[in-house]
Description:
- Helices cover 49% and strands 14% of the residues.
- It is of the alpha+beta class.
- The strands form eight sheets. Strands 1-3-2-4-5 form a five-stranded mixed β-sheet, sandwiched between helices. Strands 15, 16, 17 and 18 form a four-stranded antiparallel β-sheet that branches. A four-stranded mixed β-sheet has the order 23-22-24-25, sandwiched between helices.
- Helix 9 runs parallel beside helix 11.
- The termini are far apart.
Amino acid sequence: MANRLQNEHSPYLQQHANNPVDWYPWSDEAFEKAKKENKPIFLSIGYSSCHWCHVMEQEVFENEEAARELNENFVSIKVDREERPDLDKYFQEVYQLLNQRPGGWPLSIFMTPDKKPFFAATYIPLEPKYGMPGFIQLVRNISDTYKKKPQSIAEQCKEIERFMQPATPTKAVRFDESIAQKFVEAVKKHYDPTYGGFGSKPKFPHTSTINTLLDVYRLTANKEALEMVGHTLKSMAKGGLRDLVDGGFCRYSVDEKWLVPHFEKMCYDNALLMESYLRAYHATKDEWYKQIAFETADFLMEYMSQKGLFFSASDADSEGVEGKYFLYDYDEILQKLKQDGFSDEEIELVLRKLGITKGGNFEGKNIPRSEDIFLCETSKRALRSLKELRKDRTYPFIDKKIITSWNAMMIKSLYMASRIDNRYFEAAEESMDALWNKMYKDGHLYHVALIDTEPTIKAFLEDYAYLAVALLEAYKTTLDEEYLAKANLIVNDALVEFFEEGRWYFSKGEIFVEAEHTDTSYPSSAAMIVDAMLSLGTILDPKYIEFAYQSIEYYSERIYRYMPWAAKFIEDVLRFVYQDRVIKSTRENLAPCTTQIDFVRYPFVWLHIQEHESYQLCNRISCFKETRTCDEIIKALDE
């Protein structure tokens, strides 16, 4: 018998609609029931493409005994973290406070009927293993404590609540141009010189770190910064994290080599990696980076797009097995290559070049991977054969949620790509129109909706921030001032909704959540809105520079302390210290500059229309160069 989740739109909640657990969505009904019956709440947060969420569902939430314990002694609530990132962020902070390490998914929270948490875990097995207690025994113990020792629960809640109060920084740090070298030195401590990347396994792409290192290289010619970027981008693209067969990148690598991925593919990872490869192309003019960026765009448009909008994610699992769609048996590859007319010599070459062996490189199976950055034609032909093998397989489940912030990331990257290759321009324009028309309703921005439903959840700071940045990228590409006006509108709304004297809130709904200063799954929403304000302050109105300064000053101590993990804010600091440049002229004069400004050495350049026939080069304070041609002003920028 289906539970209350059957009425929800979220594909993740629908996946749990037939569990024997009497699930509620996050709702007044659930909390009123808990209060009326004086029962604690079990809150489970996950998302549809999460492998360990599926494991816990199969082990625990489909188990009749576990369901009976929950149904008798708890009110159980399921939340899709992609629908409610505000709840997820808040309770992830609770987990980190209680366990002194970062959390993850599924996130398991036990709390009182008035939403005060007292216990936090992630995946909990049915039976004791991995050094963790079994789920049934754990919920029995928690229920028993809740009934017999309510005072101890109340004290724990009070202590957590005290520590969860947002702290106000005690001092500000003054930044200057030395921050560029300090950032490089801080990042080097976490850099893996063997395989690239930052931090230990599991390894995540950390695109904001890559982007800021590229800015430092372009500002200061720091070759160490470029070396870390180049080695990391090339290592990530060899195969495993990057799917050599279909294209696109998986979410992260479980090993240090980028070989064995967690096989889900997220819209945001691919959009952000596309941007990083494009930025590397701008800095180096190495065609290979452009090729990877375009391949990533083509993957998203082919597999994860409809009506110009981009779906949130595809699953790691298919047919209940992690990675089944992506992995190959040695014998099936051999048979397919022979069937497709490869000679014995070509087959031997392909097996060697793509790392295909009888023993495999992941649980007896093979993940195609090449140590060669440029694949030979024989290997490319072989990958087409491997793609044909996948046609008979079940493609992983795709979550067709449209998330404003994630779509905005992709739209920004499409506009960047369109300034190199015009075939992406129509896609960028179509996507921007589709997103705006779907998510901006009656003067309000919304966060999420299925491809074929209307949005109901109001936007969070990340949606305002990433959409504003995408609109500014559209303006940079088209010089259409309607995009500039919309970006201005979105930033003003964000200031009214989420800003308090330098501090930014991610949400101010039923739970106040302060915006993070570090980059987590993707760059900090506070840093992104500062990015948008720096651009508007240069192009439109200096008041936005003041708001940006207040924000940087407020977070400065934390930015300085956590430099490698606050890379997007460091980029904002670099922009504030070095100052953006803006080229001013008529629209007709500026049009040919749009395809050139990405490749100048200086990384922070904008265009602004004015009725002045010559070209002027300015910073945010004054204009200091005037020329008669675009080429001359570009040359002046490079100098």
